[in-house]
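Quick question, first post here. What does this chain look like in 3D?
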Amino acid sequence: MAQSNEEMIADIRKKLNIVNQGLLDPDKFKNSNQQDIEEIHGFVMSKDSFSPSEVTAIADELGNLRQD
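> Answer (accepted):
Ran it through. Tokens below.
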């Protein structure tokens, strides 16, 4: 079953253990490109751990997709 953008963002936020939860507010991704979110979600869910630079890069990319 396909997940909504909001569900995928919530998964990513939990997996990355983002301190500033407002940075990845699922409501800000409702109208974002679902394919882009799915690609990031798949990558994040496939890894067990992340370096600080990976977390930063993922957060930056998600920031580019966010619809304020």
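The two ends are 27 Å apart (CA to CA).
The chain has a mean pLDDT of 91.
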